[in-house]
Structure formats: C-alpha cells, structure tokens
Amino acid sequence: MLGFSCSWNTLTFLFMKFSSSVRLPRQELGEGPCEEEVTEEARESQLQVEQSERRMINLQSDGMELVTNIQTAADAKESGQRTEEEEATRLRMERLENEAKCSQQKFEEITRGWEMTKQKTTAQELQDALNSQQQQCAQLLEDKAKLIHDLQRELKARDDCYIKDLKKAAEEEDLFIERMESLIKTLKKTYREELDQIENAYEHERRVLLTANREKWEQYMKDRRNLELENLTQRLNKMEEYEEMLEKLRMEDAEEYNITKKKLDTHVQMLRLQVQQKKASDYLNQVVLDYNYRLQTKKEEEITTIKSQQKRKMAKMQDVMKNLKLKCANKEKQSREETQKLCKDYKRTTELYKHKQKKMRHIVAVDAQEFEDVWLMNEAEVRQLVERALHIDRLIYEQQLGLTWERPHTAFMKLSAQEDPEKPAQRSAQEAASQLIHTGTATQASLGMEEGFLIEKKLPKLLSTVEKDEQMSVKLAAVFSVSACWANFSDVSHSNSTDVMCSCRSAREISAPHEPSFLRVAGRDNSEDAAYWESLAEAIPEVKLKLWDALHDALQKHQ
Amino acid sequence: MATETMSESPYPPVAKHNLARSRSKTRWIIAEDPDWSLALVPLLSQLCLQSIVKNFEKKPILEELGPDHKDFVLERLSPSLPLHLTANLISDDGYWKRCCNERWELCDVSKYGHSWKRMFFERHLENIIELFIPDLTDPKTVLDMAPLCKNYVKRLDISQLLPPIKEPQQAEEEDDSDLTCDSDSYVTSVDHFDFGILLNKLTNLEELHLVYRVKHCGMNFEWNLFEFTTRDCECLAKALKACKTLKLLRLHQSKVEDEKCRLLVKSLLDHPSLRELDLSYNIIGDRGARAIGKLLNRSKLETLNVCNNNIRGPGGQALAHALSKNSTLLSLNLRLNCLGDEGGQAIGQALLNNSTLLHLHLGGNEMSEPSANALSKVLAHNNTLKSINLSCNRLGKDGGKALEEGMSHNTTVIECDIRLTEVDQESSVCINQVVRTNQRKARKKQAQESKTK
C-alpha cells in the first residue's frame, strides 16, 4: 500500500512538474515581439494543461477513494466488531461471575451438607445424605461442564469466524490489489490521452506561431531587401560624389602643397643663412667670452688677494671697532651719567624756573598792580597837577588877565580805558607762553586754545595762504611775539624775559619775513602809550608854559 | 584462452569458433561481444588482472589500479568475497548490485536511496538479526558486522525476532513437578536479540522498524513466539537511548501494553533526534497514552502513529492536553482506538490552541455528534490543519451539519474523509466542495511559489 502510494505520488509529481515546466517556456516566449498572439495561444494550451490537470486530479482522487474505501470499510467493520466484542466479553464476564457465585453457593451447600452428614449416624440417612450430596456435586459439575461446553462452542465459533475473517481479508486484499491495478491502468491511459491532447494543443500553437513567424520573417526579409537596394543605390551615388570631391581636393592639395613647399624652401634657406650667421657670431662671442673668462679668472685672483687683504683689514677694523665700541660704551655710560646729572640739574633748574616763574608772575602781577597803582597815582598826580595847572591857569586867566578860560581837550585820557582789557589778555598770553616754553614743545592743541585771543584777527587770514607746518610755526611765532612785545613793554625781571626773548628770537628766526608786520601790529600799544603820556605832558601846551613863565617872572618881580 | 574470455561475456556466443576459425569468413571483431578479440594470446595486463581477480581474497589490490583495470576487476570479482574485505574497500555500486541480485530476488533500489551497497548491508544485517537465536547464535557475528556496515546502514526493517529455543519438553510432560522445576530453572539470559550491543555502533542509523514475531510459523503457532517481554523492553529502551541518530522508531504488532510503553517512553524522553514514533497495532491503553503525551512535549516528535491500540477517553484527554501545548507535532494518527466522545471532544478543544498539526486521523474511534461539534469549531478557527480523517465514526446528520458549518469557514483543509459516518448527502457534498476549492487554492499557491523560485 505504501509502495503503491509512493509510486503514485511520483507519477503525479512528475506530471505536475512536466506541466509547469512546459508552461514556463511558453510564458517566456510570450514576452517576445508578437505578444498578443502568443499569449492568446499560450492561454489556449495552458487552458488545456489546466483542464487535463483538473481531470487527472479528479480521476486520481476518485480512484484513491475507491481504493481506500476498502480500508475504511475494514476499519468500520473492525470498530463495529470491537463494540460487539466488548459487549460479548462483558456478557461473558457477567456470566462467569454469576456462575462463580452460584457454584460458590452450591459448594457451600455441599460443604454444609458434609457437615450435616457427619452429624448423622444411621446408614440410611448417610446413604440419603451421600446421594443428595452426589446429586448436588453432579449438578455442580453439570453446570460447570455446560459452561465449559458453551465456552468451547464459542471458542470454536470464534475460530471459524477467524478463518472466515482470514479468507475475507485475503479476498479484500485481492480486491484491493485489483482496484489498485485498474486504477493505475486507467490513470496511465488517461495520462497518455491528456498528454496527447496537450501535445496536440502545443503542436497546434507551434504551427500557428511558426506560420505567423514565417510570414513575419518573409515580410521582414522583403523589407530588408528593398532597404538594401535603396541603400546600395544611395551608396553608389554618394561614392560618385565623393570621388569628384576627392579629385577636386586632390588638385587643391597639390597646388597648396607646391606653394607651401616653395615657401618653406625659401624659409629654410633663410634659416640656414641665419644659422650660419649665428654660428659666426657665436664663434666671435665665444672668443670674447674666453677672453673675458680669462680676465675674470685673473680678476678673481686679484679679488681673492684683495679679499684676504680686506679681511685682514676688516679684522683690524673690527678690533678697532671693538675698541671704539668699548670707548663708546664707556662714553655712553659717561654721557648717561652726565645726562642723568644734567637731567637732575635740569629738573632742578626747571623747578627753580617754575618757582622763579611763579615769583615772576607774582612779581609781574605785583609789578603790574604797582605799575597800575603808580600809573594811576601818576595819572592822578598828573591829573591833579593838570587840574592845578588848569586851576592856576584859570586863576591866572581870570584873576590876572581877566580872560575867559576854556577847558582844553581831555579826549586822550580815555586811552587808558582801552588799554585795560588788553592788559589782562597780554598777561594771560604771557602765562601760556611761559607754559609752552617750560614744556619745551608746542602742540597744536595748545595753539588751538590760544588761537582765538592770542593772535590778531588778521593773522588767520594771512596764515590761510601758507601751509600748515608753516602755519604752526607762524602761530608759535605769533604767540612768542605777543609775549615778546609784552616783555618789551615791561621792564621787569630779566632772567625770565631773557628766556622768553631767546625763544622769541628762535621763533622770530623761523618767521623772519612776517616779523615786521607783527612788530608793527604789536607796536601800536607802545606808540599809543607814548602818545598818551605825550598828550598828557602836552596838556599844558608850550604857549601856556611860556605865558606861565612870563607870569612867573612878573610875579617874581612883583614880590 | 580465447574460450575463457568468451565464456565470461554476457552475450550468447553465436558460433564464434566457426566464425573465428574459418579462414574465408574471419571476423576481426565481433560487435556483440566487446571482450572477444582475435588475439588468441591475451595481453599480459589481462592475465595479471585475471590473477588479481582470482587471488583477491588473499591480496586485495584495487586502489592501485588504473580506472579501466579497476572496472575490469570489479566486474569479475565474486560476490561471495568475505565482507570484512570488501566492505570498506569496494565502493562501486555495480559490484554490490551483483551481490544483491545474487542473494535476493526482488531488489528495489529506490527504497534504499539508490545505493546498492546500502541495500546489501541493510538487508544483510536485517537477515543476521532476523535469524539470530539468543543463546544459540554467537553475538560475535553481529558485532563483527557492525564496524563494516556502520557507514552504510541507515534503516533497519526487521520483520521477525526469534525467541530462544526451548528444548522439547514432551518427554517430561508426565512428570509435572519436573516440568515446573525445569521451566523454572530454564531461564534465558535474554528473551530476544538485545539491540544494545548493536545500536550504539551504528552511527548512521536513522530508522528502526521492529516486530516481535516469528514469520512463517504456520501451524507451530504458540503465543510465546509473539512475546515482547519486559526484559526485552528494558534492553530495547537502553539501546534506544544510546542511539543518538535515530529518527524513526516503529514497533508494531508486538503486544506492547501500557507498562512497556511507559518503559520505552521513559528512555525516549528528550531524545535528540527522534522525529517519528510508530507504536501502531499494539495494545497501549490510557496510561501508555499519558506517557506518550508526556513524550510529545519533551522531544521533537513530528509524526506519531498509535493506530489500532486501546486508547480510550482518558488517554485521549491526556494526548489532547499534550497537543494543546505542543508545537512540533505535524501528524497524529489515532485510528482504531476507542477515544469515544470524551477523547474526541478533548482533542477538538486542544486543536483550538494548536497551530502546527497538519494531519489528523481519527477514524474508527466510536465518536459521534459531540465530537463533530468540537471538531467543527476547530475547522472554523484552525488554519494549519491540512487533512482530517473522521471515517467510520457515527457522526450522524447533526454531526454532518456541524462539520459542514465548520468547513464553510475553513480555507486550509485539503483532505476531509467522512466516509461511513452516516452524514447527510448534502453535508458531504458541501464539505467536498469546500475541500476542492481549498485544493485548488493550494495548488495555485504552489505553482506561484515554484514560478518565483
């Protein structure tokens, strides 16, 4: 059974494989150029294959069912028999149990009987008892024998049954084998038929495909032939064209070639000449260069000697230099020490200067104040004198001469008022200038500060025509000149003013061309003051003086 | 010389003498006989090879020969050469084919993996074991064979195991006391062939089929010829445990009852390679079934066949319990047991949790409608079960309707056998329709898979 099923399975498996493997190349073909036709036909054969497959499967399953029906029937019978068997065994067991119980009862009766007979003494009773016992024993034995007989009958029946079953089993096996063989035969036959049908289907497909492909092939071949002819004619035409073109080109090329050849020949000749010339020049150059080379070598020798000399000299010089450096260092040290000393001195002097400047300022201020006071005093004196004089004059005129007196002009006395604002300006200018001198440098910023009130209004206009550097120096000069004019004006302590004068001089040196104008500008104050005093002095004119002198003399005479 | 060479040819000589000797019709070659040659004096190489063939037993020279000479020698070697010589030396199947054909009539090499050598050694070993009479046959014969054939034997299908021969006691029948004391003192060392000495030496053994019976006993039938004793069982259990490559064990028709079944199962627990267990046509009952249930979950069993045993409801329940936790079993055959509705329902319940079982055979188990209801639920929910056989159970019309209901939701069962179940015609037709659709689906799926491969 197992072997049969194995071979069965292999058969079906092979069939399936065949059908599937046959199907695949068809599908691959289906991807070719003429898809629609091929797929339709593939479907046809595939349909056929599927149909056959289905048929075979149905047939196989039915056949298998038929064959295995036997086994199933046997199983059914077996299970039925088992239930019966169980039932029968149960009954038998019951029966045996009952039998055992009854016989046990009877046996007990018999044993009881034996006991009872032991009690009996008479022979008759013994005989009766014995008989009854025998009967009971016989009964018991009979029952047992019957049971045994029944059981043996049953056993025999079962043996017969067994033999029958064996026969039946043999028959069933034969039937089984028969069915298997018939199934195999029918399946083989149907497989062959189906295979034939499938082959026919494929054959048909193949033929159709083949004719279609052949037609296509013919068509393509025809097209190809036509195309080839066309191509050939085209090619011939083209060839002629190309030949003509080639001829033309050849001629052109030959002409060009000749021309270029001539050109190149001339060129070549030129170049050859050039080459020769170059060679000659080269030769000359070479000779010259050789000579130069020899010279150079000689020079080199000289140079080397000189170099050595120079080196010696250099060594010497270096020694000298070292010495000098040492000296220099010493000197430097000395100078440094000196400078340090000088710095200290300078510092001291500057401090002194500052101090002196302070003093000077103070003195200046005091002097100025004194001057002012003196001035005012003098002025007051002068005025007093003038007033006295005028009074006297008036007296004289009125008392002596009996004339009307007129007060002369006193407009010049207003000048002192104008100068006052200048003085503080000048004082502050002087301070600033002293500051500058003290620092020793004049920066633009400081200039910028003082620009406004140090320099006259005209100066910027003048400066605008000059460059900035010169402007700076000019401004410096202006500053210094202002301070200088003030210094000129005052007759105060000389040490400070000499310094100022030095710096002013230096400033003046810088700004030589502009000097006169400045001085002219600054000089106005001096001239104004002089004029003022002069005017004051001339408050009483010469005429009046003469008059007074005359009077005086007259009076003197009177006395 | 010429005659010698001619006599070894497989083709019938057609009056060669005349042909060869008559001058007018001298044939230079005879196409039917490739070995015949006009040369009356054979080549020296031929002579050497012939002497090698003759003296192969004393001096086996095979590996040193060239391919042509090797073929020549192999064709002429006698199949009756001692096996200890040829087993590991000759690997050419042609020689073994000759050996097999000479010894046995019917040789189907496809059953032995198309290897004649394997067929020869397996059948030879089976023969030795089948004719082994304990205490009479020297175990050495088996032990000597073991190293020779261990590389080639993959399956042993032993169809009989002889019991030890008891000396005829008819003369002593009158003397009952002597009989009893004799039978008492006559104790054999083993009851049947002890596989323990063999199995651990066969390193490639994968299948073992055993039947403890005597064939062709005919009218000399005695029940003790068909006894699988406890001692046998113990020896077999020990041997099975030692054989670590065994994949299939089949012990059928040997009156294996619960105790022996339990002994065997005990030694098979956690066996590394056992895949198929066949204890069919025995008398295993519920306790044995419980043991087998335990084995199901403690091994890698894929196929279990306990058809035609005595497993009843409780046994069925034990198996069902094991089944619900199992995930390796693929095929279960419980045909011709007495599971009844108790067992049937239990198995139905278990299958709702199981998703690996593919084949289930519950034919002839005296099941009826309740089992059909349980199984119809299984059919509706389970989608791994491929074939189910419920033939010869009295399911009845209602059972048939329940099954029809269950099958209508099923998409994987491709075989449903309900013959002789007293199911209605309509129900069986519906069920068959569903099965056919499922078959078609399965075929399509298979075809698609083979295409994608």
UniProtKB/TrEMBL annotation, chain A:
Coiled coil regions in record: 35-62, 86-150, 177-252, 307-341
Signal sequence segment: 1-21
Keyword Transcription: no
Chief location of this protein within or outside the cell: cytoplasm
Protein localization: Cytoplasm, Cytoskeleton, Flagellum axoneme
Any single biological process term in GO: axonemal dynein complex assembly
Domain Dynein regulatory complex protein 1/2 N-terminal: 73-172
Residue ranges of domain Dynein regulatory complex protein 1 C-terminal in the record: 531-558
Keyword entries, A-Z: Cell projection, Cilium, Coiled coil, Flagellum, Signal
Function: Component of the nexin-dynein regulatory complex (N-DRC) a key regulator of ciliary/flagellar motility which maintains the alignment and integrity of the distal axoneme and regulates microtubule sliding in motile axonemes. Plays a critical role in the assembly of N-DRC and also stabilizes the assembly of multiple inner dynein arms and radial spokes. Coassembles with CCDC65/DRC2 to form a central scaffold needed for assembly of the N-DRC and its attachment to the outer doublet microtubules.
Entry-linked PANTHER family: DYNEIN REGULATORY COMPLEX PROTEIN 1 (PTHR21625:SF1), NYD-SP28 PROTEIN (PTHR21625)
UniProt protein name: Dynein regulatory complex protein 1
Organism: Myripristis murdjan
Lineage: Eukaryota, Metazoa, Chordata, Craniata, Vertebrata
UniProtKB/TrEMBL annotation, chain B:
Record key words, sorted: Cytoplasm, Cytoskeleton
Keyword Cytoplasm annotated: yes
Pfam families: LRR_6
GO cellular component, one term: cytoskeleton
Localization: Cytoplasm, Cytoskeleton
Protein name: T-complex-associated-testis-expressed 1
Lineage: Eukaryota, Metazoa, Chordata, Craniata, Vertebrata
